[in-house]
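Page 37, continued from 36.
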């Protein structure tokens, strides 16, 4: 087997591994999104940081 064939095989294996990992991560994110929706409602609003824009000591 030539070096080029080995490189092609390694690239194909690396791509397959990457795609598999991406699908696993996407599935985990969907589960987390579902847990968040169950806990916080269908769409939880983003609450602003209450300290944003407040100078220290002015509260």
């Amino acid at each position: 087997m030539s070096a080029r064939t080995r490189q092609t095989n390694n690239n194909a294996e690396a791509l397959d591994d990457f795609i598999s990992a991406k699908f696993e991560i996407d599935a985990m994110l969907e589960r987390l999104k579902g847990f968040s929706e169950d806990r916080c409602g269908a769409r939880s609003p983003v609450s602003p940081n209450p300290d944003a824009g407040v100078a220290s000591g002015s509260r």
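Helices lie at 3-40. Flag for discussion at group meeting. Residues 48 and 54 are 12 Å apart (CA to CA).
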